[in-house]
Design goal:
Two copies of one chain form a homodimer.
Chain A (H helix, E strand, L loop, with lengths): L5 H8 L3 H9 L6 H14 L5 H8 L4 E6 L6 H15 L3 E6 L4 H13 L4 E4 L6 H8 L5 E4 L8 E6 L1 H14 L5 E6 L4 H16 L9 E4 L3 H14 L5 E4 L2 H13 L9 E3 L16 E3 L2 H17 L6 E5 L2 E3 L6
Parallel strand pairs in A: 1-2, 1-3, 3-4, 4-5, 5-11, 6-7, 6-8, 8-9
Antiparallel strand pairs in A: 10-12
Chain B binds a DNA duplex (16 and 16 nucleotides) through α2 and α4.
DNA sequence: CTGAAAGCGCTAACAG
DNA sequence: CTGTTAGCGCTTTCAG
């Protein structure tokens, strides 16, 4: 049950610990024969270096922290996968933490990850205050934020172009002839939310339509939230013919609500989502939406982190991710 | 940028490292005044103990490994959430690893987690051979397997009652009057698959219906897989009036396929899934399915792991998770 | 109640 | 090319 240590390997191979270390790390000069001798001992004992001990001395753990609001939310697993796949390529492991969008959890989690000596942190949390985060960023590097504005020398940021996505989506609805366009928004304030609403409003203005604040209805960013929000919107404003939603989940819930109201999508109400989750294409009707390449975001975030790790002087950086409009059935 | 160590705190508080350790761990006798003095220094320096160093000496890292085939698959995030939430209650972090159902990745990952000195491993991988896993289990404890049979003194197992679930589901379809019932199965062999097929067959037999092997159609366990499999099944056997699927994703894909074939669910074809993913209730038509409490599975697995950790003599254990039938629109 | 010494398993730096 | 020494930051003895 006791695992072999470098000492055991050294003893079995009849060399010093240092020589074993050199052999397994391909570091420093070492003769072929001793190396083989060592590797034989390694194999015989099933030896694997203790990463904790390695981490203690190298100050590198080959582990990164990934902070997400809720891995259960369809958006995050894909990002997580991107992070992990890219990490694995470089022999990095990922510590995953959920915060439920609670600011205090975000902060607590980040300090906890730092205490665990992760080499870097990728976070999709957006609720903690800039002040708190700045204090943290002063003590820890590197950090990559996804979907949040943040300026700091040790921090890079990856942002989806929420404004452009929303603008594209709503412009398309207008082009289709819709004039009364509602929006189902996330009751829970997020940064991406703000930009999506702005994109929605700008599109209306750009086409000479008036922005009706009451056409924005709050809901949880979930199927249920979308269902409820759409029901409310339509009961108040029956003249509405199209809705743009904060995310696909809300859109799918909204479609269901339209259906339960005895109306048709897209004949009576056109629905446009945001994110392009896997389900969007299979739903009936299939959902028109703004595609966000979630996997690529994760990959990019991890790559960026690795760069900052390799070169601590890497300047901070903001990357904007483009989005595409995906037209399917729900907009007719 | 350099983090404070216990040494720094000791110096600032004018005590020994040991006293600091005692103060922060509430261990051993320590006077109130020195403790306060120490805590003040801790606060001032923003000191947090280095978990690696703690781990080195205590042989506990308060980290567990969670191995899943693919976190992107709707089933796993909920389990992961259960694991994490339960873990957090006990100050445990979770290292998440994907294996894509590749046996060699499963094994590699587990050794890697062991090298990182996780305190335990929860795995949902099912592809590695019993032999390989036994070799591993001989060197590492504790382990909890989810959805795989495995006997070993250091290993506990949590299994969904796949047989019973399938039996319930198909019996229900039969009760509804269906006589020609197909099944969409996972082309990729899994343990749960076997039991679900057995449950399906047993239900048919129990009701005096004949088991037609050709009514089993392979597909990927995804929306696309279900779509393709159903199309194939119906083109071959138009007499079929109901299908039971390996999982909800396949069921949803199947519903879409029925729709695209110009037929109706449930009027022409009844569809029954397995898992009860969040989407099932919102789909149109909403999906009848076998509910599996994924979150509870994760929780239970973590609890079990913690128990085994606290008491290394805990006997291994197999827990069976009951399932419920959820009737919605897709079965009429 | 508090401190000193030892060591977890490994690698960096320096000798030889 | 290989070995020795030191130490990463912490907790566990064991003395005071």
């Amino acid at each position: 049950m006791k695992r072999a240590t470098i000492e055991d390997v050294a003893a079995l191979a009849g060399v010093s610990r240092q020589t074993v270390s050199r052999a397994i790390n391909n570091k420093g000069e070492i003769s072929k024969t001793t190396k083989e001798k060592v590797m034989a001992a390694v194999a015989e004992l099933g030896y694997r270096p203790n990463r904790l001990a390695q981490g203690m001395v190298t100050q590198r753990t080959r582990t990164v922290g990934l902070v997400v609001p809720d891995i259960t939310n369809l958006f995050f697993p894909e990002v997580a996968r991107g992070v992990q796949d890219e990490g694995r390529l470089h022999d990095y492991n990922v510590l995953l933490c959920n915060t439920d969008d609670k600011p205090e959890e975000e902060i607590k989690t980040m300090y906890s990850l730092a205490a665990q000596r992760v080499d870097g942190i990728i976070t999709m949390g957006s609720k903690a205050t800039t002040k708190e985060l700045t204090v943290f960023a002063n003590t820890f590097r590197p950090i990559v934020f996804i979907n949040r504005f943040f300026e700091h020398p040790h921090v890079s940021v990856i942002n989806v172009d929420n404004f452009q996505g929303a603008h594209l989506a709503v412009s398309y609805l207008i082009k289709l002839g819709h004039r009364q366009i509602g929006m189902l928004v996330n009751e829970d304030f997020t940064r991406s939310q703000v930009r999506r609403v702005q994109g929605y409003q700008k599109a209306l203005q750009d086409h000479g339509l008036s922005v009706v604040d009451a056409y924005l209805v709050d809901g949880a960013p979930t199927l249920q939230g979308g269902y409820a929000a759409l029901s409310q919107l339509l009961s108040q404003f029956p003249q509405i013919t199209a809705v743009f939603t904060y995310n696909d989940l809300m859109a799918l819930g909204a479609i269901r609500a339209v259906h339960d109201l005895g109306k048709q999508v897209p004949a009576d109400i056109a629905v446009m989502g945001f994110d392009d989750i896997g389900m969007a294409a299979m739903f009936t009707p299939s959902l028109s939406t703004v595609r966000v390449d979630k996997y690529a975001i994760g990959q990019l975030a991890m790559r960026r982190l690795l760069q900052m790790l390799d070169n601590p002087d890497t300047s901070s950086h903001t990357i904007n991710i483009d989005v595409d409009l995906v037209i399917r059935e729900s907009t007719g």
